[in-house]
Design goal:
single chain, alpha/beta, Ubiquitin-like (UB roll), Cytidine Deaminase, domain 2, 2 domains, 6-stranded mixed sheet
């Protein structure tokens, strides 16, 4: 089966319509394992769409609380013997991080994560708790700007155009400019790729940005936004009850069902201007 790039490949398919069958080739999104190692030791295996693996690893490690700033990371390398787009990356961290990680290794389990997984490595609800002050309301934007984000997010999905099988996330400045975008079979991975991009540029916290996602707003996505200091999350589909509770506690403006000119504001509506 031919490859069409890091995110998709061609496969044979038979399409049935009534009594007719048509054989042809179609594109499907690639789902493959990525093994993230810390100082050479296996830390996690996650399912993802290949591409931006280095940034995905950084975003994931930040969301998991392993690293706090770019200064914590010495290097991110492909594992020896893997090609450039292989399935292993090795993150080398400073000694302080290595020491802390060894002390708290019992707080998580090394697992194989599915592409639907968020913080699957956590072993208890208590270990998810983070001390985070509510994000302040330091800017606002008009409703038309919020309503335009899903369409602009959709325009940033080139692999989805061919496969129909990927989630997407995009980071917008509050004046409407796209700062970063990513696609992946996992919603959480797409967000981690974006956070990893900004983490790598040492631009966290992201207090002047809005995160837009192509699916529903889950607790994990709100937590990732909170940890990265993103004060607004716009989702095309529904939020969960726990996502709403967490957004309210974190001071995040949570928007759901953003389709066309309509959307629902669930928390902290003061960041979105009327009219």
């Amino acid at each position: 089966m031919e490859s069409t790039g890091p995110g998709s490949r061609g496969v044979p398919v038979t399409t049935c319509s009534g009594t007719t069958r048509e054989r042809h080739r179609d594109l499907v999104a690639i789902e493959a394992p990525l093994e993230v190692r810390l100082d050479g030791e296996r830390f996690v295996v996650m399912m993802r769409t290949p591409g931006a693996d280095r940034l995905l690893a950084l975003g994931f490690l930040f969301s998991e609380g392993v690293v706090d700033s770019r200064a914590d990371v010495v290097a991110v390398d492909a594992w020896p013997g893997d090609p450039v787009l292989g399935n292993r990356v090795n993150v080398i961290v400073v000694e302080r991080v290595s020491r802390v990680l060894r002390e708290r290794v019992d707080d998580r389990r090394r697992v194989a994560m599915t592409s639907a997984c968020g913080l699957c490595g956590r072993v208890s609800i208590e270990s998810l708790a983070r001390d985070a002050a509510p994000l302040p309301v330091s800017w606002s934007m008009d409703a038309a700007g919020v309503a335009s984000m899903p369409a602009r997010l959709r325009a940033a999905q080139p692999v989805f155009d061919g496969t129909g099988g990927l989630h997407a996330a995009a980071l917008f400045s509050h004046d409407g400019k796209v700062a970063a975008s990513a696609e992946d079979v996992g919603r959480h991975n797409a967000v981690d790729k974006i956070v990893g991009t900004m983490f790598d540029q040492d631009r966290l916290p992201l207090a002047d940005f809005v995160l837009a996602v192509s699916g529903r707003a889950s607790f994990e996505l709100v937590q990732k936004a909170c940890l990265a200091g993103i004060p607004m999350l716009v989702a095309v589909s529904a939020p969960s009850s726990l996502a709403i509770d967490l957004a309210d506690a974190c001071g995040i403006t949570l928007v759901g069902f953003a389709r066309g000119e309509r959307f629902n504001i669930y928390t902290h509506a003061e960041r979105i201007l009327e009219g």
